[in-house]
Structures are given as C-alpha cells and as structure tokens.
C-alpha cells in the first residue's frame, strides 16, 4: 500500500510539473498576441504610457486609422481574391494529381512524382528571378506580343501575384500520401459494379477526402495570405498591393502610429486564425491520416 501511494504521489507531481511548464510556454507564446490586441484598442497617446493589458479607455479609432492610412481596403480585396483562387486551384489540382499518382498506373508515374517532389528542395529565393521573367514576358499580357516582348506582362497585376501559387508540390505530395492510405478494395468494388475511373474517384474517394481538402486549404491559404517576398517583387503600385505589403509600407512611412499599426496587424492576422479554427478538426485528421502513409 505505501508503495502504491508513493507511486501515485510521484505521478501526480509529474503531472503538475508538466502542467506548469506547458502553462508557462503557452503564456510566452500568447503574450505578444495579447499585447498586440491590447495596443490595437489603446488610444495612441496612451500606447506606451500604460502597462495595463486591458486598456482603461478602449477605442476603435485605431482600426479606422489603419484602413485609411494603410489603404487596407484595397489590400484586403487583392489578397482575398488571390488567396481564394489559389486555394481553389490547389484543392482541385492536388486532389486529382494525388489520386492519379496513388491509384492509377501510367508510364513514368513514379518518375514524374519524384521529379515533382524534388522541387521542394529548391529554395524560394532561387526561383524568384525565373518567376519574375516569366511574369514579365508572359505572352499577350500587359502589352506583350506573342513572344512576350514589348510590354510589362503580368507585372503589377493580380494574375502576376497568382502565378507561383496556382499549384503547390507539397499539397500534391500530401494528397498522394492520403489516397495511398485508403483501401484499394473500394475501387475494385466500384469496378465490379460497372463504374469507370471518373465515377470511382468522384463517388467513392472524393467524399473520403474532406480531411485532405481541409489540410490543403489551410496550407494554401496561410502560404498565400502571409507571403511577402513575391508580392514585393511583382507589385509596383497600390492596385496590386497585398495586406503584407500594405502593413510594411505603413510601418516604414516614418511617422509610426503604433496603435493603428497593431490594429492593422490584428485585422490581417484574423482571417488566418479563423480559417484554422473552423477547420482544425479536419486539418489534424488529414495530417494524421495522410502524412505518415505511402
């Protein structure tokens, strides 16, 4: 009996220590976000004169100032259009390509898949110049002729912003891993019922791919919404600026208003947080089911 009590006491002590450590880590992670939210609702004149986490006189003026000074309205519209189109194309292409690599036999399938996968190892910085030239010399766009000469191509356009986001290699990899883990007997049963490959994919496997779609959608959304380097390269005016560029321009304007800057940061961070919160169950399920199979 004493040995059992001693073991239970040690176990309880270990659980309490883990809880304290996790609580401290959580606090360290959340504090910058909580302070950012606090400053967003704090009047500008009291931004650094008070150490209160909850403002004494909260205000919404900083959010209005953020929209006016940083031109967030146009930037939000541009980012939303580019991000939603990129999410749609990635979901469609990744699911179709992943299913084909996992369940269809065709010449060179493995070679093509591993060739695609090898592109993940290429640093983003290495691809910037080729992507820039591709956007600038895009045929029949921005005054260019059929050979991509004479104009600006897709530079400073939403099409140019979209160019590198349309298809994600990692999304295809995750999709292939996910479909590889699904039972092939489902396809055989469909073939016995006279179903073709398209019907098998649409009626049997696609409904099972909801967790996968959540993973691809979240990865694509966060990757496009948070990207800064490519918009910086291709955008030259406010008509194609994104939220990340808008915040950077506002922060480097010289006369920094920290309340408005934090308000803009809160607004820009909100869509990513909402997308993850509403899809976290499918996201975790898709990663656990597809990420370790194949």
UniProtKB/TrEMBL annotation:
The keyword Methyltransferase does not apply. Pfam families: BPD_transp_1. Residues 76-279 form the ABC transmembrane type-1 domain. Keywords: Cell membrane, Membrane, Sugar transport, Transmembrane, Transmembrane helix, Transport. InterPro entries: MetI-like, MetI-like_sf. Its main location: membrane. The chain crosses the membrane at residues 20-41, 80-101, 113-133, 153-174, 200-225, 258-278. Gene3D superfamilies: MetI-like (1.10.3720.10). GO terms for cellular component: plasma membrane. It is a multi-pass membrane protein. GO terms for biological process: transmembrane transport. It is found in: Cell membrane. Belongs to the binding-protein-dependent transport system permease family. This is Multiple sugar transport system permease protein. The lineage of its organism: Bacteria, Bacillati, Actinomycetota, Actinomycetes, Propionibacteriales.
């Amino acid at each position: 009996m004493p040995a059992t009590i001693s073991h239970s006491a040690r176990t309880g002590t270990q659980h309490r220590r883990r809880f304290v450590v996790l609580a401290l880590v959580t606090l360290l992670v959340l504090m910058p976000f909580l302070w950012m939210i606090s400053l967003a609702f704090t009047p500008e004149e009291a931004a650094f004169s008070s150490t209160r986490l909850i403002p004494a006189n909260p205000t919404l003026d900083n959010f209005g100032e953020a929209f006016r000074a940083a031109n967030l309205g146009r930037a939000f519209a541009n980012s939303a259009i580019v991000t939603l189109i990129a999410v749609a194309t990635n979901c469609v292409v990744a699911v179709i390509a992943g299913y084909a690599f996992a369940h269809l036999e065709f010449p060179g399938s493995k070679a093509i898949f591993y060739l695609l996968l090898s592109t993940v190892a290429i640093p983003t910085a290495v691809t910037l110049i080729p992507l820039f030239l591709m956007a600038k010399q895009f045929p029949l766009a921005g005054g260019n002729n059929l050979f991509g000469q004479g104009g600006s191509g897709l530079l400073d356009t939403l099409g140019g912003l979209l160019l590198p986001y349309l298809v994600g290699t990692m999304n295809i990899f995750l999709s292939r891993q996910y479909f590889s883990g699904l039972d092939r007997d489902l396809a055989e049963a469909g073939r016995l019922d006279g179903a073709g490959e398209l019907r098998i994919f649409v009626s049997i496997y696609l409904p099972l791919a909801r967790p996968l779609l959540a993973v691809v959608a979240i990865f694509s959304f966060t990757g496009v919404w948070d990207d800064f380097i490519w918009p910086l390269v291709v955008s030259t005016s406010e008509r194609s600026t994104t939220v990340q560029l808008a915040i950077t321009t506002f922060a480097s304007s010289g006369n920094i208003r920290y309340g408005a800057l934090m308000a803009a940061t809160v607004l820009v961070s909100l869509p990513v947080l909402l997308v993850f919160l509403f899809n976290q169950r499918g996201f975790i399920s898709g990663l656990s089911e597809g990420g370790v199979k194949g």
